[in-house]
Amino acid sequence: MQIEDKGTVEPSKMYFAMTNEFAKKALYYVINSGRFYCNTNYQIRRETLDSFLFIYVKEGKLAIQYDGRSFVVQSNSFVFLDCHQPHMYRAIENRTVFDWFHFSGNASKAYFELLYAKNGCVYKLYEQHILLNLMERIIKMTEEDNVEEHLASIYIQQILYELNQYSNPSDQQMEHKIKQAIAYMEDAFQKDIKLEDIASYVYLSPYYFSRVFKKSMDSSPIQYLINYRVNHAKKLLHHTDLSIEEIAAECGFNSASHFITTFKKNVDMSPKQFRAIFF
């Protein structure tokens, strides 16, 4: 089926699936699916829709707003949304390509809540993941108007299983995410970044990210960021003639008074006293 939604371009396609009553009662089932090629005019904003949504971004980027949070979805990333809640997604690159399908089923909401609490709604894939193959199989079924409902239900269950496995990463994968988070903080420490920004950067929920970061680093992410800012301030105090106000701004503090209070709390002396010490 050709698409006329604003922002979609050729060769975008959408397909619909017919579902019997047994599938609606007992299985996960596909509602519709497609592959969209979009420019930056593409945007979907809904208050509610009676379905859940999987998206795989093949090229470009999507911006997503859900549950009061904002996400930027890079290429080779997977998205899981509960469309019963208000949500928005839009293309933010002029060539953005993504596969998608809406589905439902009795356990869909419970699975979404389990996974969202662990990981949020975006999953960055690091290789050719089995999720891509499962998505393609389901879209092909709907394209050919030949949805084997029990098999489609198995594929959806397997996608949910794989997302749950992703949400329980190995020690090596988690170490990589923590290194990414640290690099992000050290690169952006001069900006007004929050826990939600850091967690979103590594595609984890703030709660889960805080827990694993503290376990690994023996410090909360925000305390790590504060320590990095204070350490940078120490260097500026001793190696430059910048004023306290200038150093506060240079180190990401929103005011000189906030900087002085934070510095004193962490160093047991004021910035002025620290600057007077001869090393």
UniProtKB/TrEMBL annotation:
Any GO molecular function: sequence-specific DNA binding
SMART domains recorded: HTH_ARAC
Pfam families named in the record: AraC_binding (PF02311), HTH_18 (PF12833)
InterPro entries reported in the protein's UniProt record: AraC-bd, Homeodomain-like_sf, HTH-like, HTH_AraC, HTH_AraC-typ_CS, RmlC-like_jellyroll, Tscrpt_reg_AraC-type_HTH
Residues covered by the HTH araC/xylS-type domain: 179-277
Key words, A-Z: DNA-binding, Transcription, Transcription regulation
Record protein name field: HTH-type transcriptional activator RhaS
